[in-house]
């Protein structure tokens, strides 16, 4: 949840900044928006698209928060990538490599999962 909040406060501001007389920081501006949302009484709907419809209706009230919520709601739930990562990690840890540290397993799995992005002619500097 903390990463989602960091992502939210680092996104570009969609509306005009507060007037100079208020001198509210960007982080405080977003905090105020979230506090307004939390303090709002919401009507519970049983429609499956209720969260999406709710945030579309709030685009004029809280444009930044609504855009962020719509972005999060648009992510389809899938387990394919996580299953691939577990499968790759299973290939990294074998009977002969059973004493690898968790950090090394993470690094080797990351390299294997991103192998297509690593240039074939990459040379690493030797540690002295």
Explain how this protein is built:
The model has no long low-confidence stretch (mean pLDDT 77). The chain contains 6 helices and no strands. It is 52% helix and 0% strand. It has 128 residues and is mainly alpha-helical. The longest helix has 14 residues, at 26-39.
Globally, the shape reads elongated
Overall pLDDT confidence: 77
Structural class: mainly alpha
Unreliable parts: none
Number of strands: 0
Considering DSSP H and I runs of 4 or more, what fraction of the residues is helical?
40-55%
- What's the end-to-end separation, in Å? 41 Å
Q: Using the CA coordinates, give the radius of gyration.
A: 22 Å
Q: Return the string of H and E elements.
A: HHHHHH
Q: How many helical stretches?
A: 6
Strand content: under 5%
Instruction: Please outline the major beta sheet.
Output: none
Topology diagram in text:
Elements: H1 2-10, H2 26-39, H3 50-57, H4 63-73, H5 80-92, H6 102-113
Helix pairs in contact: 3-4, 5-6
For the structure shown, list the relevant keywords.
mainly alpha, 6 helices, 52% helix, elongated
Brief summary of the model shown:
With 128 residues, the chain is mainly alpha-helical.
